[in-house]
Amino acid sequence: MRDLVFLVLVLQICRADGAGDERRANIILRWTRPIWIFAGEVCLQFVQSLTFSKNALTLLSKSIIGMMPLLIKRILFALLPLVLVTTLFGGTWTQLNNPAPGNVALMLLLPDGTVMAAKQPSNGYGKAWFKLTPDIHGSYVNGTWTTLSSMQCSRLWYSSDVLRDGRVFVAGGEYGTGTTNAEVYDPLSNTWTEIPVPAGLITTTNNDGSNNAGFEDSISKILPNGNVLIAPVYPATNGYTVIFNPTSNTFSNGPKLFRGRWQDEASWVKLPDDSILTIDPYGTNSERYIPSLNQWVNDANVPVQIYDSINDEIGAAFLLPNGNAFFLGGTGHTVIYTPSGNTNAGSWAQGPDIPSGLVTADAPAAMMNNGHILCAVSPDYNSLTTYFYSYEYEVGATGQFVQENSPTGGLTDNVGSYEGLMLDLPDGTVLYSHENTDLYVYKPSNPILAAGKPTINSITPNADGSYHLTGTLLNGISEGAAYGDDAQMNSNYPLVRLTNSVGNVYYERTYNWSSTSVMTGNEVTATEFTNSADLPPGTYSLVVVANGFASDPVNFAIQPSLSIYSSGTNVVLSWPTNAVGFKLEFATNLVSPAIWNTNLPLPVVVSGQNVVTNQMSGTQMFFRLSQ
Fold this sequence. Notes:
Layout: H1 2-16, H2 23-48, H3 54-66, H4 70-89, E1 92-95, E2 104-109, E3 115-119, E4 129-133, E5 144-147, E6 159-162, E7 168-171, E8 182-186, E9 191-195, E10 219-222, E11 228-231, E12 240-245, E13 250-256, E14 268-270, E15 276-279, E16 286-290, E17 295-298, E18 317-319, E19 325-328, E20 334-338, E21 347-350, E22 365-367, E23 373-377, E24 387-392, E25 400-404, E26 421-424, E27 430-433, E28 440-443, E29 455-461, E30 467-472, E31 481-482, E32 495-499, E33 505-508, E34 510-511, E35 524-529, E36 538-546, E37 549-550, E38 554-558, E39 563-567, E40 570-576, E41 583-587, E42 604-606, E43 609-615, E44 622-626
Antiparallel strand pairs: 1-28, 2-3, 3-4, 4-5, 6-7, 7-8, 8-9, 10-11, 11-12, 12-13, 14-15, 15-16, 16-17, 18-19, 19-20, 20-21, 22-23, 22-31, 23-24, 24-25, 26-27, 27-28, 29-30, 30-35, 32-33, 32-36, 34-35, 36-37, 36-38, 39-40, 40-43, 41-44, 42-43
Helix pairs in contact: 1-3, 1-4, 2-4
């Protein structure tokens, strides 16, 4: 209906105005877009409340257009492309129906499809965490909140990574008591474990309580072997990094940075060759970490200043769908990096400036499944006004910014951009928090970028009842959402989503991903996933999802278990009550074609099991569950 309404109006105005000066649309586009976003949605809601045939709609539009003066027709013709763009292709914000139990800051996507969210108490840092679980139809908007175990140390702005085995690693804290230590969270046991940091890796003297020791607000990244590379703000020896090994839960010295300084306030990007790109604080030099060499190497100079000169801040950075890297600047400038594909230096070019003098001096952003980047921006670091833009990489030589609505209504959110955080969700939306209990999801416009679509090659059962899935692009073509050194919420790993015939949605926990590389092309990677005990038996449509990109579905059957034992002169059979649609049948022989009957006693429910007690008659009997 949305397409029909505006297409008919366009055609009628085109006929009314023979000249059709389209250039006026380009002039008005940027300055009136917010008005027409609102107007387009109002028109849409009105039209959707009515029922029109195509003929009736055409007559109505002819009558309206016929009464308009020529000048008005020309103005409308200039504005209609804008209405079409914003109404047909603009994304939408929706507030979560259930507020969080407390103010929310950092959010992480767990491999079972739930969201782990750090509480942001009034004093600015804390230990508590919440969990957001989507509803039975997979909706995060209608999701429910529960409380998780608390960390042992309080933290705000710290390293955070979801490990390949599904646990969560955190280290440091610009504020709080955790600046010189690290912890690992196990979602299966809902427990936090402190990981000792050996002497000689980070400084530990923090006498004045101002958090000028240890990891502080360190940046981190998962390496190809599953280890975590961390850049402490205060290493024991200047310029060195630290590596955490999740298998042994131990720390060791990492390679020295090329310039031997630090990465405080930096943003890192993982490239398709697994190297890690950074712009060195606080100037225009850049370098890369090469995992195969365990070494940082020099790279090309950046053409413009990205770090702001007052607070030394920078924005988020991303791998673009075309294979280039994109950095948002605290100065309002942006830069684009073209990789060499090897250890040689790449090349930098200046990208478009953020419109209206706005900047990203600590601000969230998220790569969406249409390939665009949703960005929060502000006039300066201290401003309590946040605007929202989408960066469209494919427009022109360097891309363009297009303004978006605010999640709270209008064009601005009345918080500092540094207070916002984003997270890519598996349903293709972006979750936004701003240190409050009200959270929002942004649904991007279609079409979904075909280049990001995963494929499933095979699913095979494991001996322990879990499954082994192989395919391509299982980790997606980017790392998801980003912020910078203060918070990492990368989600470049596969999730498995099952949907049954009535639309109920289930996420099966994935773990032991073979890779966290991005944009892997035709390389086959793998993951394990569980067979949850509470998953009702039946036939499902299964997809693998990475950062909102879903594969084509495959049929996946969960068979209920049938238990049988003898009790005196009876045979007792039982199966789970959640095996809806399954019935117990028997046959007296299996000679083809076997004749299966249901003439058995009715089941009774005992402790979540359907139980049938049947008297043994001395005749051979075979039993099965049939759907």
